[in-house]
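pasting for the record
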Amino acid sequence: MIKATFKSVSSESKISRETASLAIAATFTAEPIQETLAFWLNQLDLELSVKFAGYSQVFQQLLDPASLLAQNQSGINLLLVRIEDWARFQPSAEVSLDADADKLKASLQRSVKDFVDAVDSATCRSSTPYLIAFCPVNPGIAAEQRELYGQLEQTLAEALQPMQGVYLMRSAEMFLQYPVSDYYDETRDRMGHIPYTDVAFTALGTALARKIYALKRPPYKVIALDCDRTLWRGICGEDGPLGVSVDAPFQALQSFMVRCSEAGLLLCLCSKNNEDAVWQVFEQRDDMRLSRDRIVAWRINWEPKSENLRSLAAELNLGLDSFIFIDDNPVECSEVQARCPEVLTLQLPDDPEEIPAFLKHVWPFDTLNVTEADQQRTRLYQQNQERQRFERDALDFNAFIEGLELDIQILPPSLEQMPRVSQLTQRTNQFNATTRRRREPEIQQLCDTQGYGCRAVTVKDRFGDYGLVGVMLFKPQGDTLQGDTLDGDTLEVDTFLLSCRVLGRGVEHRMVNCLGAIAAEQGLSTVTLNYRPTPKNLPIANFFNNIAHPYNQEDSEDSRYVLPTAVAQRLTFTPGSASAKSASNPTPSVDAAKKPSKTSPSVLWNQIARELQQPPQISKAVVDPTRRHYRLSDWVQPQTATEKKLSELWADVLRLDQVGLHDSFFDLGGTSLLAVNVFTGIESVFGKRLPMTTLIEAPTVAKLAAVIDCVIDRHADQGGAQTLSDAWSPLVTVRAEGSKPPLYWVHGGYGDVLGMASIAQH
């Protein structure tokens, strides 16, 4: 798999390409979600800039024709609604089911009706899609209230669902794909109406980004599936329909594909295989979740998969950019990426147990709404199955083969390799010339007492080690000895087999070269390749016909290809040639001009599905691991334990490498939102609750540490009975010195006065 790195969010690059907005209005302080949303919009190249309406301005934004949401004509409007917030400032918000609770319920029901009316009015004025997300409530509230909020959410969903241009996300969905155990932050909710932890905001932002991506991207329409090791464990052509395994991970994959089919995606098969062997699995296995009647088209043959995908696209009359291709083989995936970069190519994890989680985190599978037409799409396309299939042009695979960096070793097998040699003779069917099954002792006896030679073929490439994949058993034959050579002599090949995993890469040609070299070393004039047909080994017959047709000597049903030794030695592999195609020509590749870029969709989605499954993983990717360096000329090292802890806390919140003793929180880029994190941290680290307005009078580490130490000492003297907040005053001194007339500021909103710190400087 090609490794990509996640893109960092550059403010300059984002601003330069802003053409539309993701306008957000919420019933709570939602700005902590911005970082995650910006990260995903940047990764996915969605040209949306994140903009927030004022605090708790949902109704105003919906009703005002001049609001941020109303003016957002080419983007997406996002409403974050926590029904609990509509009761936040009502005196009956925290009581049980009594008379006051009935008033609360009636008030909330009015809010629900007003909200539905406001959304209806706003959507009638604009074609901009509205994504309305119901956010989880405080899990610690009374059960009666949780039940009430759940009922009101259901009422809202039923009323909003039919509206055109409205897309809903229920609270139960929020942490479904990105679970967070402790999502509620009581301290931040109390201090700044920020109800969730940082990791929970990451999960929420990611879940919402998936919906936004589904809204903005053109939908994929086709899923093309490999078969062996993709739909089932094993190789049907070698193991037989009852020999493959359809265990839990593969059943999960098949069930996932059934759901995709029900959602309107067309399912196709694109497999290098014998067609009969594949269909036998579908027909004879009762544990298959995916039935044949869901398959609208297929290419089950030995052609390059990129060619087969082009052929399927022509048959279905769809563009390649509407295809998702799924395979377990990294080489096959590389070939499709190189030759069909428009196709979204997904390589399944090596461990089948990881397949369900992998599929769950491939966003392009997501669908917003499933219509009746979507549900009928498979049947409609199946009616067109019999139309003519277009002829495929041959491809040039020279660069691909060169890029594979194949390492082919053909040597006598070691004792440790003999079990695998025997196993290959027992199980290989499709590229097995004679299908003679040999037990290990029998092979050993042929070599030790009957003059047979044996060669084991091992293959590596830049993707990994395929191990022992091929076997040749041969014996010199001749009538009479003439000098040092045999009269009528030949190297009779008893067994010539190769695993399908490496077909079409020139390995089979190198095996013939090896036989030619052995024949030459022994003074033999020819190499005889024997072929005995079976229902499954047509690929090797095609290969022999293409490389040695002039030397074919048919004997009833069997064939003997008697190649001159020099011809066998000179045989070369030409990618794209008939012999390459007949052998399956799997791989193909990555020449410099067509190598997929690090930002190609295939590379991106494979990485996301593997590495960004959990909120902590996403948080790590969102936050640039390198901290900003900020050091004033008069920087002073913190000294006391309190100063050091506070400095570390500030550095973590502000993402700085260090914070000095006299650095001002506001000069370092501190904001009201970041102040909430600072004071939440103070409460956690020092066990003391301070009002955030303390930052106005104590904006440096030195001053704030002195306040904390003073409170700690006072608590020690008074038995811990008093807190600084006990002496709370509604008046906050923003600036005490100066000779100009005093300015008194009456703030609005939720009570944020920290924003006045910058005004006071002027």
